[in-house]
Amino acid sequence: MNKGLTVSAVAAGSIGAELEVAPGDIILQVDEHEVEDILDLRQFTSGGAFALYVQKPTGEIWELDVERETGEGLGIEVASVATRGLKRCRNRCVFCFVDQMPGGMRKSLYVKDDDYRLSVTQGSYITLSNLTDAEMRRIITERIGPLYISVHAWDPEVRRFMMGHPGTGRLRGQVRALSRAGIPLHTQIVLVPGMNDGAVLSATVRALAGFHAVRSIGVVPVGLTGHRAGLTALRPVRPEEARTVLAAGRQWQAEFLPRRGRRLVYFADEFYLLAGEEIPSPREYDGYPQLENGIGLIARFREGFAAARQDMARRAALWSAQAADGETLHIVTGTAAAPFLAEAAAEITRATPAARLRVHPIANRFFGETVTVAGLLTAEDIATQMGDLGGDIFLLPDVMLRRDGLFLDGHDLSWLEDSVRGRARVMPALFAAEGGTDTWEEET
Questions:
Q1: Which residue from 240, 273, 320, 406 puts its CA 20 to 30 A from 285's CA?
Q2: If we measure between CA atoms, which residue out of 58, 48, 51, 49 comes closest to residue 22?
């Protein structure tokens, strides 16, 4: 078995940099504790003073004495989740997004992780189907949480069918054990028409609501790409079905709010868009516990925009000032976020006439136009639909680019700039629904 975790990056000016820790070094031990995964590293380095044992590429082992202020990070990133590697998904979900990806892309994009350590550190959803008894005991003993769990159906047979693995039928006992231990749980249901909707959905929501440890239940519609040849025949949620789901949801929320102090069950923005209904107010999301799941993104954007419209107008004016006379600032996004960014751009333009803004909603032809977030757009789709910018500046949300600076189709920023004859500016996502796809970059 490999020993220790390999350092992948060290932040400039950090404690790690001051101690001359470098990429390629291996963190072997903290005090007397061997480091076998990222949870070990987090737990054993939580104190203000400790000894860090690092092996250099030469084989030399350094003992580094660390003293730091409370909350001060080490600035060290590691290349893998654990010495034994990432826990992989063993399920064969009928709606798996990875199975719907076209071939020929980067190897790591096809990695299916199902690792409880990423759930607690990054909020990744896990199924619990590959947990060993020892790992369950560790989670309970060390009170590892919160955990984010993909439930989909409380009925064991329905869940086994949807997820294609016999281990998924153990969910009820696992949730009971975690709840008894007081581990906070955030759960999700991917709604597949004809499989886990209707009475199955109602039973799942009510069963989860019966556990105090369950802090939120997120319901999202199944995502289907244009690359489903040979896979189980599925269809997207229809507008009338979205309206039915939301009507039931309002009843559940009215029931849970006085009982639990929160609405507990929340629905992806896409349900409201499909149903043609108004997005709920920010207060109805109870602090946005399911924001990364695409739930409450529009409300959060509107809330943030209302609070920061003056600053955004000032920034837009500054960006426009960088442009040549008569030049337009182009904002690139997916089709989901486009109406709301267009609304914001129009308001900024009214307040600041000098700001010349144009929003470009890019349809996803690579995965299929049912995929609407910007984080899954490719450089070729952007280039084809933006056309010739004639030297104008265009803004890209950072979620479009992976850690290596490449788009999903392997092109880089320079290629896109040349293709559209424009100058790119990468910035934090203007709208959270622009979404991202980053997973743990661990090669097999």
A1: 240
A2: 58
